[in-house]
Write a structure and sequence with these properties.
The structure is a single chain. The protein is an alpha+beta fold. It contains 17 helices and 10 strands.
Length: 379
């Protein structure tokens, strides 16, 4: 088998099926990434969503049934601008899902592309062994993509491609085929520190180092009460954060609409906040179940919607928030609604808080109600 010819065939086929970038690298251990991950772990900067075993994250041999010889990295470009985006008004405030949660869940889209690629390779080389993964696999997508020449690893901890900026989804395939590796790309961030300077919570400790525990994208996915210091930083974000991407000069003018399934439904990507508070499980699954931002369920998103209403100081939402505080079975939502009512203020909010704190049984919810009453005095 002429592996160079096979590589060219794979590249051509990848274009046919809508893969926007493809690169090849060795299956050697990612030694530099290992050191970085060990440091992240020691500093407590991990999110907790990652594969726990660092060795598996950096050594393809530990996760592959055959002898790994190379890794194929793919990238698909996603849109950065929404067509016909609805506007938030004073009486109808809206939240926002980050761009990586627009359209169909990218895990589904990339897995389909990788499956087609696997089938193509098997048709050419029946003895090929492959293992594909997207985001939730053991290997670090960015490390693979960087070494495979897809782009460089930016100071914002995203892979930045010359063609599409950082607005790309990544996936990879470990294989026993000895493909010729591509050349890694030179870092082009230079002295630019815009992403570090504007990070709302200072989560970008330095170029290429992220404290996930402070990252808004991570915080929007947590399920408990959001720590006080971050509540005013969330803004109207329901899921994820794009700030370190939108300020990147490499992303200026980058907006690609190459995959219809990635196009956002404006009413889902920028939903009205008040109706979001009382979504049933069934309605949530039917309306939002197909997007990547639904993976943690509706509770964190509804908590974030409450914080967004507090951010807007939306007085029209006071009856809705009182309803959540008095009737929702989840203490996190009752307590967060109480805090939000204190933030918005007004006699109606105060009366409801005084009434609710007498009935509340959950200690954390009671604490939030007391915080709400203190905030009332500052409004």
């Amino acid at each position: 088998m002429d592996f160079n010819q096979l590589k060219e065939e794979v590249i051509l086929y990848s274009r046919e099926i809508g893969i926007n970038k493809i690169g090849f690298t060795t299956a050697n251990t990612f030694s530099e990434m290992k050191n970085r991950l060990l440091q992240q772990e020691a500093l407590g900067y991990q999110s907790g969503f990652e594969e726990k075993d660092i060795e598996k994250r950096v050594d393809p041999e530990l996760i592959f049934s055959a002898t790994p010889r190379s890794i194929i990295s793919i990238a698909l470009a996603y849109p950065s601008k929404m067509k016909n985006a609805p506007q938030s008004t004073k009486s109808e405030r809206r939240g926002i899902f980050c761009r990586a949660s627009w359209g169909t869940d990218y895990h589904v889209i990339l897995r389909k592309k990788l499956k087609l690629l696997e089938e193509f390779i098997i048709s050419r080389l029946p003895e090929a062994v492959m293992k594909s993964m997207v985001d939730t696999g053991e290997l670090v997508d960015r490390a693979v993509a960087q070494r495979a020449g897809i782009g460089w690893s930016g100071k914002n901890c995203a892979i930045i491609t010359p063609e599409f900026g950082s607005y790309v989804y990544l996936g990879e395939m470990v294989t026993n085929i000895p493909f010729e590796p591509d050349t890694p790309m030179e870092d082009k961030c230079g002295s630019c520190n815009k992403c570090i300077d504007v990070c709302p919570t200072g989560a970008l400790v330095q170029g290429g180092q992220l404290n996930s525990q402070r990252c808004i994208a991570f915080l929007t996915q947590t399920k408990g009460f959001l720590p006080d210091e971050f509540r005013s930083k969330i803004g109207n974000r329901l899921y994820g954060c794009d700030t370190c991407q939108t300020v990147c000069p490499e992303n200026k003018g980058k907006d690609y609409h190459l995959h219809p399934e990635m196009e956002p439904d404006p009413e889902i990507a920028k939903p009205l906040l008040k109706p979001f508070l009382t979504l049933s499980n069934r309605d949530f699954k039917e309306k939002y179940g197909h997007i990547s931002g639904s993976w943690r369920g509706k509770k964190p998103l509804q908590r974030n919607a409450i914080l967004a209403l507090a951010h807007y100081k939306d007085e029209t939402a006071i009856p809705d928030l009182i309803g959540v505080m008095e009737n929702d079975p989840r203490p996190v939502l009752r307590g967060t609604a109480a805090w939000a009512l204190g933030k918005i203020g007004g006699n109606e909010a105060e009366t409801a808080l005084l009434r609710a704190v007498k009935k509340e049984q959950d200690p954390e919810a009671i604490e939030e109600m007391e915080k709400g009453m203190k905030l009332l005095k500052q409004v």
